[in-house]
Amino acid sequence: MTPARRSLLKLLAAAPVAPVAAQIAAAAPAAAAPPAPSAGPTVPGIVKPLPPELFTVRGTNAEANFAALRDTGRHTPVERFFVRNHTATPVLDKSSWSLTVWGSGLRGGPARFTYDQLRRLPSVTRDVAIECAGNGRSYYTSQQGDAATGTAWTLGAIGVARWRGVRLSDVLRHAGIGAHAVDVMPSGLDADYVTEGVNLGRVRRPLPVAKALDDVILAYEMNGEPLPYDHGYPVRVVVPSWVGIASIKWVGDIEVSAEPLSSPWNTDFYRLFGPSYPPGGSAPLTRQTIKSGFELAPDTVLAAGRTHRLTGRAWSAHAPVRHVEFSTDGGIRWQRAQLRDTPLRNNWVRWSAPWRPHTTGRTHLLARATDMAGNTQPERSVPNTQGYLFDAMIRVPVTVN
Ligand SMILES: Nc1nc2c(c(=O)[nH]1)N[C@H]1C(S)=C(S)[C@@H](COP(=O)(O)O)O[C@H]1N2
Ligand SMILES: [Mo]
């Protein structure tokens, strides 16, 4: 048991509020949750079907096939949204679920919210991208020859959904957050994460109070439907612009602390380590970075003398996208792509570019996004041992014949 868990149990034992048993909801059929369709292969730990044309299974995770997003709109349908699970999706029941807010940063004792109580608070709806810190990690190795530990994602560890829920700030105020609070740490109700024989406890990561009170939401809907099991049913945290790990799924309790909090997810993981960083690593990661990609499988064969409509997406966690350039000759000449969406914060833009190749043979397509804060994708991403925040231009090999 982690110290946090131990002190939670002590707190709850002292105060006649939430029985812990009610939070650690056992697997139970949840009638109101979306039914799981039966077609397609599955992976242990993920509830929804993962058809191979839409997903690549990587350990306990499922990567969305980025090229297959070509025929989706700005919102990623649940059937195509990537899943990143440290262990396995817990199938929870909203009627026995509750959220406990506790800790030294409250003015009084712990507060408990049932699902229905949360639903009665004012709701907000936000279009927000969730992107794993390691999205694009495999390109450190394939494009730059840099080793990187962790899931070998290509570009499909991102999705954009319309989330509906309550403001975390409203919940924290109802719970009596004090002016002395500094950190807020949500924990998931999925199983403890055990790696290399060490139990790291519940998946959890602290947020500074300023971010927690700013734009974070506790979401109970995704694209107009109850949150699917794999994406955090019944309630998850959504932290706009930050690395995916901040958006804790299946949230069961939130510690509000008068002292800085830590967990392995801000000390050992989700920091930048390596020769370009200080010996103890960078500060814990907050924002994601800038990326763009073609919705085209590598090694696609295209006919010469015909006009092809190249499409892709571009996004930045710093600011809305300003423009996207593309090259069809390996990065020598560049042209502007046409943006198909209004650039928005925390969202991507779809773009398209006509290409009529004349020369046959193999070439590389590249795209390069620039955002409204002036960030542009570099040619090379500064490596870090765990392969986070890949931001360089990605080269897509194609053959013209
Ligand atoms: N409880 C819990 N929350 C979690 C995780 C997890 O394993 N358990 N994975 C995190 C990581 S690393 C990412 S990238 C996102 C992925 O969200 P998704 O599976 O809904 O796409 O959830 C985050 N929240
Ligand atoms: Mo992640």
From TrEMBL:
Domain Moybdenum cofactor oxidoreductase dimerisation: 306-400
UniProt keywords, alphabetically: Metal-binding, Molybdenum, Oxidoreductase, Signal
Signal peptide extent: 1-32
Highest taxon, organism lineage: Bacteria
Cofactor(s) demanded: Mo-molybdopterin
Domain spans labelled Oxidoreductase molybdopterin-binding: 86-265
SUPFAM superfamilies assigned: E set domains, Oxidoreductase molybdopterin-binding domain
Stated name of the protein: Sulfite oxidase
